[in-house]
Amino acid sequence: MATGWAPDGAVQDQIDDTVTDAVARARARMPKGESEPFCVECDEVIPEARRRAVPGVRLCVECQSALDKRPVTIGFNRRGSKDSQLK
Hints:
By secondary structure, this protein is mainly alpha-helical. The chain has a domain at 31-71. Helix content is 45%, strand content 0%. The longest helix is centred in the first third of the chain and has 20 residues, at 10-29. It is elongated. The two termini are 27 Å apart. The model has no long low-confidence stretch (mean pLDDT 82).
């Protein structure tokens, strides 16, 4: 059900756009190319099985886990308040 000036399905369109953007960001961050034999952070050997499983890998499992735990900022708010839209 649309309210105000929004067409039917506008909320779902926002959700779909947000998911599409997140998938595109995740794909852009995926490693590509030749895998590194040693971790670029700690210089530990990256096991051959990991290098085959993740093409272009640059970090060992421990360093990648630490990187994945960092907070992620999205940077674009599709659901601004009415006050912010009127300014």
